[in-house]
Design brief:
- By secondary structure, the protein is of the alpha/beta class.
- It has a single domain, classed as P-loop containing nucleotide triphosphate hydrolases (Rossmann fold).
- 37% of the residues lie in helices and 20% in strands.
- It is built from 10 helices and 10 strands.
- The strands form 2 sheets. The chain has an 8-stranded mixed beta sheet, with helices on both faces. A two-stranded antiparallel ribbon has the order 8-9.
- α2 crosses α10 (247-259) and α4 runs parallel beside α5 (139-147).
- It is globular, with a radius of gyration of 18 Å.
- Residues 1-9 have low confidence and may be disordered.
- The protein binds adenosine-5'-diphosphate.
- The site of adenosine-5'-diphosphate (ADP) has 18 residues, from α2 and α8.
Length: 260
C-alpha cells in the first residue's frame, strides 16, 4: 500500500506523533533503557501523551521494566495496538518474541522489523514518542536516525572515559544526520551510602558535563547510582512512578521539564 511505498523512500511518516525523541548511548549497560523509561514516565506526569518505542531489538528491556513481561499486543486486520501501563503507550519487539529467545537477525531484518513496528502500530495521538535506541553507533542506529523523523536525541553516558568516548561518537553520528542533540545525561554519576551518607564517585564524576561543554551541547543532568532505581525497574514500576517524591524521581522530572 501507500504506506509501504513511503517506507522505501525517505522518512517514515508518523502522522499523529508530534515529537519523537531518541534516547541513545555509545555503549551498552550505561542505563540508557532505565533513563528512557523514567524520562517517558516523567514526561507523562507533566501531562503529555507519551509513547515509548523500544528499538533495542537485541535486548528489549521495556516489557519487564514497565511491568508488561509476557504481555502480548492486540492486532487488528491492519494494525498492532500498543500496550499500555503507567500511563504510557508501549511497543517493543520483546512483545513479539519469547523473552529468552535470542533475536538472531542480521542488520537489514532488524531495520525491516523496526520499520514495520513503527508503521503498523496504531499509536494514536501522541505529544511525544520516546525511542529507546539500540546501544552503539552502528548501521541500525544510523538508519533509524535517518528514517525516523526525530525531533532530537538525548545521549546517556556514565562518567567513565571509555563511555564518554563512545558518547561522543553517538553525538557525532546524530550531528552527521542533522538530528539535534538535545543534551547529555550522566547516569551512575555518584553513589551515596544509604547507611552513612558517604558519597563515592565510582566511575569518577562530572565527565559528561565536561564532555557536553567540549562538544558544545547541553548538559541535562546527573542521576546517581542507586539501588532503588534498579529495584523499581526490575519490579516493573520505575522510580518516577514508584517513588515520585524521591530525589531521583525529581531529577528525572527536572530533565523532562527541560526537554518539554
Ligand atoms: P542499557 O539500556 O544502557 O543497557 P539499562 O538501563 O538496562 O542499561 O541498565 C543496566 C542495569 O543497570 C540495569 O540492571 C539497571 O536497573 C541498572 N541501572 C541503570 N541505571 C541505574 C542507576 N542510576 N542506579 C542503579 N542501577 C541502575
Amino acid at each position: 500500500g501507500p504506506r509501504g511505498q513511503q517506507a522505501l523512500h525517505g522518512k517514515l511518516a508518523l502522522g499523529s506523533v508530534r515529537h519523537i525523541v531518541a534516547v541513545a548511548s555509545g555503549k551498552g549497560g550505561v542505563g540508557k533503557s532505565t533513563t528512557a523509561a523514567n524520562l517517558a514516565l516523567a514526561l507523562s506526569r507533566l501531562g503529555l501523551k507519551v509513547g515509548l518505542f523500544d528499538a533495542d531489538i537485541y535486548g528489549p528491556s521495556m516489557p519487564r521494566m514497565l511491568g508488561l513481561a509476557g504481555a502480548e499486543p492486540t492486532t487488528t486486520d491492519s494494525a498492532i495496538l500498543p500496550l499500555e501501563n503507567h500511563g504510557l503507550k508501549i511497543m517493543s519487539i520483546g512483545f513479539m518474541v519469547p523473552e529468552d529467545a535470542p533475536v538472531i537477525w542480521r542488520g537489514p531484518m532488524v531495520i525491516g522489523a523496526l520499520e514495520q513496528l513503527l508503521r503498523d502500530v496504531e499509536w494514536g495521538e501522541l505529544d511525544v514518542m520516546v525511542i529507546d535506541m539500540p546501544p552503539g553507533t552502528g548501521d541500525t542506529q544510523l538508519t533509524i536516525s535517518q528514517r525516523v523523523p526525530l525531533s532530537g536525541a538525548v545521549i546517556v553516558s556514565t562518567p567513565q572515559d571509555i563511555a564518554l568516548l563512545d558518547a561522543r561518537k553517538g553525538l557525532n553520528m546524530f550531528r552527521k544526520v542533522e538530528v539535534p542533540v538535545l543534551g547529555l545525561i550522566e547516569n551512575m554519576s555518584y553513589y551515596v551510602c544509604p547507611n552513612c551518607g558517604h558519597r563515592e564517585e565510582l566511575f569518577a564524576h562530572g565527565g559528561a558535563k565536561r564532555t557536553a561543554e567540549e562538544m558544545d551541547c547541553p548538559f541535562l543532568g546527573e542521576i546517581p547510582l542507586d539501588i532503588r532505581i534498579r529495584e523499581t525497574s526490575d519490579a516493573g514500576t520505575p522510580i518516577v512512578v514508584a517513588e515520585p517524591d524521591s530525589p531521583h524521581a525529581k531529577a528525572y522530572a527536572a530533565i523532562a521539564q527541560a526537554l518539554k
